[in-house]
């Protein structure tokens, strides 16, 4: 890009008018220092001047002034714009050749703001611009773009709309604009499956892949008609309740649905070996189902004997369980609270039947202590017959008698409670300390007629009904062993 001398004069931005009061020594150029001034020709000018126009000729007003041979006289105040360009050059660049001085001025590349660091004489600028990498040139593909040389390679390769390039997948040739339209639709481009199975498939084969090969395509179970993805269908097939299976006993029945196989083996399969229905009684028969009826008919007597033996064993087990339950219900605290219900009916029965005795549950003085049992005669016994309630205590054979100290010597207290007393629990209480010489407190034997010790006149029938001992046809009697008298080993 070459500019004329007049254009570069304008580029240097000289003042449009001469300064009348400035000396020529104050003038300077863009290039190297100005050489010593030479005497002016024909006229003496004390002021510096610059050319307003960038052309080699002066304006029309100047030309007319020059043609009329009108020249300023010394001391006159004529406008310096009428001065010919040669004289202006002589004033600005005094010396033998002003044009050479201008062309030798130091300049920078016009693209120095873009990063070009070139600087040299003005005469070399044109040659530099022909090779400057920041100078814009016409795209050789004639796309109409002006591209700096430094970006031309990238432009031709990537952005030029008139470039010729090939698709990296199908190798078809396109222009730049055509390739942008082709991208995203090339049938040979590998893309990930739209069903997210994880495979990369050529775009042109995507439809075929989704219908035949994709692991995430939906497939229908042939037995239950439910839909599953292709990768989970084998797992379902191994558990499908409608999948047909052969009988594991190889009977004559056809394929059986998995959900119905258990019922077939239990109720229908003729080849399955079944046990006799009296198996729990001890029958050891086991054979095909069709032979079971014949076995039951022929073994009726044997089955009856087995059932009798089973019933006997079960009876023994029941007794053992009852014994275990009774042991669990035994009181080991040394205190028995005896609740006697249906008092009126039992009292009527006692008055009509001599010697009727009520027996309490047994209890222990401690976990490994003496075993005791209370008894009561509602209509009295001995001296209290028909007038009093009699209470007694018996020492029973216990599991730990061999470890205990005999005779039994703990004190016993009987208490009949009043029910609903407002000021504390009232009642009737009697206690005694066993006589060590009396036979009842020695180590008991297994005889069932063991005698007890107590109070034949514990409470009279009159007192029993005059105070609230009976409520809701129920009476409460407490039998307590004094723990301070424990002498167990």
Topology of this structure?
Blueprint: H1 5-11, H2 60-67, H3 85-92, H4 98-103, E1 106-108, E2 119-121, H5 125-129, E3 136-138, E4 146-148, H6 149-159, E5 164-166, E6 173-175, H7 176-182, E7 190-192, E8 200-202, H8 206-213, E9 218-220, E10 227-229, H9 233-237, E11 244-245, E12 256-257, H10 261-267, E13 273-275, E14 286-288, H11 292-298, H12 300-329, E15 335-340, H13 343-352, E16 358-359, E17 363-364, E18 371-377, E19 388-396, E20 412-417, E21 427-432, E22 453-460, H14 461-466, E23 475-481
Subcellular location: Cytoplasm
Biased composition (Polar residues): 13-31
Zinc finger (TRAF-type): 128-180, 182-233, 236-292
Structure in words:
This is TNF receptor-associated factor 4. GO terms for molecular function: tumor necrosis factor receptor binding; ubiquitin protein ligase binding; zinc ion binding. One of its GO terms (biological process) is imaginal disc fusion, thorax closure. The chain contains 14 helices and 23 strands. It is α+β, with helices and mostly antiparallel strands. Among the domains are: 99 residues, no CATH class; 57 residues; 156 residues, Apoptosis, Tumor Necrosis Factor Receptor Associated Protein 2, Chain A, CATH 2.60.210.10. Strands 16, 17, 18, 19 and 22 form a five-stranded antiparallel β-sheet that branches. The N terminus is likely disordered.
């Amino acid at each position: 890009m070459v500019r004329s001398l007049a254009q570069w004069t304008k580029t240097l931005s000289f003042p449009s008018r001469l300064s009348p009061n400035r000396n020529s020594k104050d003038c300077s150029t863009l290039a190297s220092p100005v050489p010593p001034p030479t005497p002016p020709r024909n006229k003496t000018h004390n002021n510096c001047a610059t050319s307003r126009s960038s052309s080699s000729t002066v304006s029309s007003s100047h030309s007319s002034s020059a043609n009329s041979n009108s020249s300023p006289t010394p001391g006159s105040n004529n406008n310096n714009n009428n001065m010919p360009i040669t004289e202006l050059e002589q004033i600005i660049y005094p010396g033998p050749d002003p044009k050479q001085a201008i062309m030798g001025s130091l300049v920078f590349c016009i693209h120095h703001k873009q990063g070009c660091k070139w600087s040299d004489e003005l005469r070399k600028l044109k040659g530099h611009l022909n090779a400057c990498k920041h100078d814009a040139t016409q795209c050789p593909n004639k796309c109409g773009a002006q591209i700096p040389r430094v970006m031309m390679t990238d432009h031709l390769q990537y952005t030029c709309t008139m470039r010729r390039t090939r698709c990296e997948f199908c190798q078809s040739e396109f222009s730049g604009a055509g390739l942008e339209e082709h991208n995203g639709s090339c049938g040979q481009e590998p893309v990930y499956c739209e069903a997210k199975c994880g495979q990369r498939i050529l775009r042109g084969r995507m439809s075929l892949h989704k219908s035949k090969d994709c692991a995430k395509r939906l497939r229908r179970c042939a037995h239950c008609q439910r839909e599953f993805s292709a990768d989970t269908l084998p797992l379902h097939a191994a558990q499908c309740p409608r999948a047909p299976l052969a009988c594991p006993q190889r009977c004559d029945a056809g394929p059986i649905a998995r959900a119905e196989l258990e019922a077939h083996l239990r109720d229908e399969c003729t080849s399955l070996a079944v046990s006799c229905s009296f198996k729990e009684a001890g029958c050891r028969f086991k054979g095909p189902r069709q032979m079971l009826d014949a076995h039951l008919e022929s073994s009726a007597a044997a089955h009856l004997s087995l059932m009798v033996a089973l019933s006997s064993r079960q009876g023994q087990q029941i007794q053992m369980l009852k014994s275990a339950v009774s042991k669990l219900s035994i009181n080991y605290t040394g205190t028995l609270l005896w609740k006697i219900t249906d008092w009126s009916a039992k009292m009527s029965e006692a008055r009509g039947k001599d010697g009727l005795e009520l027996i309490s549950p047994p209890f222990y003085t401690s976990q490994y202590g003496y075993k005791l049992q209370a008894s009561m005669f509602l209509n009295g016994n001995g001296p209290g017959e028909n007038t009093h309630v009699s209470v007694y205590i018996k020492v029973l054979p216990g599991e730990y008698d061999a470890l205990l100290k005999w005779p039994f010597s703990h004190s016993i207290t009987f208490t009949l409670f009043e029910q609903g007393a407002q000021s504390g629990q009232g009642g009737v209480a009697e206690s005694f300390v066993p006589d060590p010489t009396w036979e009842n407190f020695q180590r008991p034997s297994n005889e069932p007629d063991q005698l007890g010790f107590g109070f034949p006149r514990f409470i009279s029938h009159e007192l029993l009904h005059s105070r609230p001992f009976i409520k809701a046809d129920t009476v409460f009697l407490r039998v307590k062993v004094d723990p301070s008298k424990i002498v167990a080993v």
